[in-house]
User: What shape does this take?
Amino acid sequence: MDFFTPIVDDPYQFGQIAAANALSDIYAMGARPLFALNIVGFPRNELPLETLGKILEGGMDKAHEAGIHILGGHTIDDKEPKYGLVVTGEVEEEQLIRNDTAQVGDRLVLTKPLGTGIIATALKRGIAPDDLVAIATETMTTLNRGAAEAARDVGVSAMTDVTGFGLLGHLLEMITASKVQAAVDLTALPILPGVHELATQGAIPGGTKRNLAHAEKVLTLEGNISEIDRLIAADAQTSGGLLIAVQPENLDKLVAKLMKKGTPTAAVIGEITGEGEPWITLRTQ
Assistant: This one.
């Protein structure tokens, strides 16, 4: 289950983003969605019902793209619009991909660029260029279906989606559960255009700042890495990509399958470096 308040102005796109984001939790475990239910909060006396209709239409179209139906749901009167889905999926037990099974030597692959949280904050402040908002929206409405299929076909070590805790936060969850340590190459991170400039202007979500404060407790820096760089690595994402730990001998095969599936990126961003207490090294090559 996942739902949130609008992060874009267009209600149809908001519905698409929220649905893609909720479906991502299923894809992150290598599973296939079966059906979904709507969760809606809507200020019926403040906004026209046509707006709600557009939100629901966006969610329905994204669910159909995923090959499932929305079977119903529940709506409450709320002072601020909220929308999301409850999604049920299934996976064969031997094909389940967990986030606590990363292994030493695994390479780390990311399937969507970072920066949606910063762009969404800039949009709220009125400083986000329309073309950047359009690029971010396209990224957020992209299903992680193809990425999950590629990971399942290859047989990867571990996987998680990158959402509210940011890349560093979700990587920290993975390595903590797996009892390993990791290194991330800053120069390899895929980042949406304009994000660094918007971050420099102060468009930093509160969640991103909290993410970095948490991650810095287990973070070592190697090279010239600014606070802005670290904030982008910790940026709170909406409908972000999948973070995949894959055995080195299967890396090329995974990247090729991701590219064939048309994922926004197939970036090799780091590796699992050793066993021990959770620790992340953020480095420049």
Observations:
- The domain at 97-283 is CATH 3.90.650.10 (Phosphoribosyl-aminoimidazole Synthetase; Chain A, domain 2).
- The chain has a mean pLDDT of 97.
